[in-house]
Amino acid sequence: MPVKHEVLTKNGKEMRDLTKKIALRLRCLNCSGWGYKEVKECKFTDCKIYPYREGDNPNSGVQRMKDLRDYCKWCSVEGGEPKRCQDFNCPLWPFRKGSATDKSREGVSTPTDLF
Question: pLDDT of 85-95, one tens digit each?
Fold first, then answer.
């Protein structure tokens, strides 16, 4: 089931309905500077989300979630603790804890609105 979340896109911030598949694809596009060709020809084959970069889901849901969490742990500046992630506009943010059940940012436009 999709979760509504504000993400950074090529055209700025947008509210999107995200599934893990869409979130993974958006993260790869963001990493490549929104270059579709760059994503397709990505050289970072050791990246945990590399297999999902073109919107494919080559692994089971359990493995996909593990790969997503491993990527979040790698990216996290909080010592590998995705739950403390402050990158609210990352498309993977709603899924960082293992599911999209965290609705704490739904409808929130800026990080300061949380406090």
Answer: 888 889 999 98
